[in-house]
């Protein structure tokens, strides 16, 4: 991959399964060495996109280049240069951790002399060197995921794809997986492309693309995306939430809802709004908090719904999409 | 823990025949590891031939020896031994082929399918893996030969092993072709059970193929397993000291409309069927590309 070229370059990519358009013409570029996140609800088309980039699915239209190679015309070149960690486990539980890696090394044709040392490196990196002889089926969920990450790195890929790398893991394991991912980028100088539907995880990415219903609706750094929302989140505790919501609507023309047990609404320059609120609301306020917009707010501002709502309404559609892929 | 500061990157070579051969070898190797780990399966697979030979063989042979006729000098157990060998190969080979359904259901197939190797290498590796596993299992069954009056002649044993390897190859290929379209382990073994019994009963594994009613005779001739059982039996009877009359009764060979099919042609048929089925399986697995 010549320097300066994108690690991933996608142009007008479309994937249709029968009548369902899972990916509706997306384009973006990922810079080498970047941690690039695909954020969106289940069924948004993230996995379909990643499967096309990994040469597992053929695009209906458009082009994609990974590590400088076309995913359709130069499939083997792409496969040689990418590492994959799938959403669902793909380990052989009847093989030991080390045997799983050796299988991978042989399948990818990694020279034997180099493979041994490399296996040790990646196993140490994910903290599984001591458990290498145990059957993979005896590993915990987090250990399995770490073994898969080690395996994905074994052949020194230029781009590592992680499809929902932390789904189904407990918070502590999730954060340790993220530790590995960030360390990895520093140690291996590779590009990391991942999908997630956890907002807090998207914060770790250098840039994120928000995907909804097969389209990319926003793409920037998490900071820039949040700054772009322009409104702060204000939460107040009152003696009478109903009256407070009505008063907000009548006096300030602000829509508020009760969320997390507090009256919640979004306004520009929240801190300056608070004194007016106390003076004019007419309902006693017990406490107030103002927070900068989160990625949740970003998602909301681009799609008009929270990521949870999007998942609920997208469920039927997702089932259709899922039928088309394997 | 510390991460190595300058990790040593490895190079993945261009695709080559040598690379594909390595892939074939590791897929095969994995089948052997599974076989070795799963010793319960090894025991279970041995139990069945034992049951056929020692229980059913013994039970039925009392029936035969008590009557008049040429049966007296040839033990029924000796007669069904080649059939039991072929049947046991069939079970082991189909089980091995089933592992690819397991791989699909539990995700490991994906690991193989995204690797920069040809699908052909993966299918060939699976096929050879199934054959080798079934052949290893056969060694254990051949160890029983003495119990049923089959001599431990090295030439005979080598002949039998070779024939069983080829049979296993064809049957694994058949299993893989089935497995290519099936997504759940349960349905694979369901279909396998339905398929195996007729193959076994129509193959001459348990009775001679001469003097059958026309309809049964035709069915046995269309059963590929028939051409696996017959050479095995032929090999066994060539090493027995029996009269030509008895041989004609117990080892009549397979005839097509009165023409005796030579053993070499039967072997060629088995290999040919195996290659055709394996090619079919390769085409199936490539189609998903």
Protein model, in words:
The complex is a heterodimer of chains A (326) and B (289). With 326 residues, chain A is an alpha/beta fold. Chain A contains 13 helices and 14 strands. Chain A has helices at residues 46-53, 75-81, 97-107, 112-125, 141-153, 171-188, 199-202, 222-229, 241-252, 270-280, 295-303, 307-313, 315-324; strands at 8-17, 20-30, 35-39, 61-66, 69-70, 82-85, 159-163, 191-196, 207-212, 215-220, 231-238, 257-259, 262-268, 285-291. In chain A, the strands form three sheets. In chain A, strands 6-7-8-3-9-10 form a six-stranded mixed β-sheet, sandwiched between helices. A four-stranded antiparallel β-sheet of chain A has the order 2-1-4-5, covered by helices on one side. In chain A, strands 12-13-11-14 form a four-stranded antiparallel β-sheet, with helices on one face. The longest helix of chain A is centred in the middle third of the chain and has 18 residues, at 171-188. Chain B is mainly α and 289 residues long. Chain B has one domain. Chain B is 71% helix and 1% strand. Chain B has eleven helices and two strands; from the N terminus they run ααααααααααββα. Chain B has helices at 17-37, 39-66, 76-105, 108-113, 119-142, 154-179, 185-201, 214-221, 226-238, 244-250, 263-287; strands at residues 255-256, 259-260. In chain B, a hairpin with a 2-residue loop joins β1 (255-256) and β2 (259-260). In chain B, α5 (119-142) packs across α6 (154-179). Mean pLDDT of chain B is 87; it is low at 1-6. The interface between A and B is large, with 45 and 36 residues. Chain B: It holds the Pfam family ABC2_membrane.
**Percent helix range of chain B:** over 70%
How many β strands of chain A by DSSP? 14
Report the oligomer: heterodimer
**Distance from first to last alpha carbon of chain A:** 30 Å
Structural class, judged by helices and strands of chain A?
alpha/beta
How many structural domains of chain B?
1
Helical content of chain A (DSSP H or I, runs of 4+): 40-55%
Mean pLDDT of chain A: 86
Number of helices of chain A: 13
Order of helices and strands of chain B: HHHHHHHHHHEEH
Q: What is the tally of beta strands of chain B?
A: 2
Q: What is the global morphology of chain A?
A: elongated
Series of secondary-structure elements of chain A, N-terminal to C-terminal = EEEHEEHEHHHEHEHEEHEHEEHEHHH
Side by side, the strands of the main sheet of chain A go 6-7-8-3-9-10
| Overall mean pLDDT of chain B | 87
